[in-house]
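May I ask you for just one protein sequence along with its C-alpha cells in two labelled lines?

_____
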Amino acid sequence: MNHPLLIDTDTLQNRLGTPGLVVIDVRGRAAYEFGGHIPGAVHTTWHEYSDPAAVPKGLLNPDLGQIERHLRTLGISNESEVVIYSNPFDNWGDEGRMFWMLEYLGHRHLRILDGGWVKWTAEKRPFEHGRVSPTAGNFHAQPVKALAISKDDLKQIVRSPHDQAAILDARSLEEYMGKEVPGIPRPGHIPSAIHVAWNGFLNKDATIKDTDVIKEMLEDKGIRDNQDLICYCTGGVRSAWLYFILKLVGYRTVRNYPGSWWEWSRDFACPVEKDFRGLQKMLGFDQAARPS
C-alpha cells in the first residue's frame, strides 16, 4: 500500500544507510540479537518507557527527561526519519505502540514498515545479528496531549451523553464480553464501548489491508469521521495499533488510553459492563447446559 504513514520493503532497503534514517526493531531482544534484524536497526520495546512506579503497565513514565535520554541513545533526533517494524504475526501491535508514543511525544516523521519482519524475510532481504550502537541523537519531547486520554477524563465522558465520542475496545471479543483474565480485577468492558479487534487488519503476507476495505469494516460498526475516537485495550498496546490503523484510513480525531483496562478495572468507581450470556454462547456453555 502506498501511504505516507507506511514504507514498503523495497523502498526501505534502498534507503538503508541514509543519513537521518533510524530503523527501530520493537520485537523481543532475543529475536533481534540472535534471530537477525534489518541492517542498522536499533532495538527498543514499549516496556522501557512505562512508569516504573505504576501498577498499570501501559502508563508512560512521567519523567520525560528519562524518556528523551533513552530515545537519544537510539540515534533519534526531532528531524530523524523513523521507521518502525516488528513481526506483525507475533506481537500485540507493538509497532503501533511505538508509533503512538513517538507521535504523542511530538515526533513528526514516523512510518511503519508494511509487512514488517515477516515480509522482509519472505523476500530474502539482507539482515544482520547483534546490537547496533548508533551516534546519539538530540530528541526533545514536546507532548501532544490531545493524542492521549486519562482515566479521569474518560470517566467523565462515559458518565455523560457522548454521541460525538466513540470508545473502541481493541481486545478480543472474549475479553470484551467478560472473560476472566489473570491479574485483572474485573472483567468486562467500558460502557458504550464498540468492539474493534486489533488483529483484523492484515493480509496473509502481513501487509495492511487496503484502506477502503478497512474503512468499510469500521463504518459497518457505526464508527464515523466526525467522532472523537478513543481506543483502549489491556495496556494501551493493541489500542495503539488500532490508533495507527484509524490514522492510516483518515480518521482525524483519535486518542489512545495508555492505562486501559489494567488501570480502569482497578478503580471500582469506573463503571464496567459484561455480556456473560454472549460469552457463554460463544464458548458453547449454553449448549452444554441444555438437557439432551
